[in-house]
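Inverse folding, one chain.
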């Protein structure tokens, strides 16, 4: 049976998760602010194929208390396999210097604890590269979720930062540039995402990407599951 992977979703801890676990090799749930971290930790402990990432989204940095970085460090240290996300930079939201400061703090903690990071970047690629280039130590792998950067940068990011790229419904609405990104993402770096509370969306996403790449859906789903296992093994 074909099994799918949702590399970026947002779920809450409910008795019944909103997807059929038998259809999924795994899902990665991201928190967007500190109030959601506990839920993510509880979910990942209780469910074998649910992986978690905690962080503060660039849209929500004004929700952070002064001790958020300490809590992040302690929670990650106490929870093996827990990742860092959703973090990043977004030019459509105010105060880029504070966004960059908070983003860099997350990256430093992830690097110290060797945790994978899940990045949201919209229109702030120069600042993104400057921040990544300034790190003394790199995280073991980076997932660029809903990748919207340049095609020529995909190879460099893969090689220099052990980067993976996930695409979901928004990317598939993006026309020729999105198609160019998907086609030019190395097969070994390609992942799918729902970026929602409905992982089943990934089934349709996988079908559409398979059409773009002229691959059988089951074969592509297998490649994506292998990619996800390889990425997770780095954390
Ligand atoms: Zn998200």
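Residues assigned per position:
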């Amino acid at each position: 049976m074909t099994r799918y992977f949702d590399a970026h979703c947002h779920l809450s801890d409910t008795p019944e998760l909103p997807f059929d676990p038998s259809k999924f090799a795994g899902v990665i749930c991201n928190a967007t602010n500190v109030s959601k971290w506990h839920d993510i930790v509880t979910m990942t402990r209780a469910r074998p194929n649910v992986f978690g990432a905690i962080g503060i989204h660039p849209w929500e940095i004004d929700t952070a208390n002064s001790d958020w970085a300490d809590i992040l460090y302690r929670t990650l240290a106490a929870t093996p396999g827990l990742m860092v996300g959703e973090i990043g930079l977004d030019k459509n939201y105010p105060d880029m210097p504070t966004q960059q400061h908070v983003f860099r703090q997350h990256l430093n903690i992830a690097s110290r604890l060797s945790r994978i990071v899940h990045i949201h970047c919209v229109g702030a690629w120069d600042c993104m590269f400057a921040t990544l280039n300034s790190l003394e130590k790199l995280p073991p792998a980076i997932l660029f979720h809903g990748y919207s950067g340049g095609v020529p940068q995909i190879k460099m990011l893969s090689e220099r930062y052990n980067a993976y790229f996930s695409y979901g419904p928004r990317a598939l609405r993006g026309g020729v540039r999105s198609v160019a990104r998907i086609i030019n993402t190395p097969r070994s770096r390609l992942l799918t995402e729902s970026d929602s509370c409905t992982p089943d969306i990934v089934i349709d996403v996988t079908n559409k990407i398979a059409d773009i790449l002229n691959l059988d859906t089951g074969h592509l789903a297998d490649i994506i599951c292998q990619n996800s296992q390889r990425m997770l093994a780095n954390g």
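The CA atoms of residues 98 and 211 lie 41 Å apart. The chain has one domain: 4-233.
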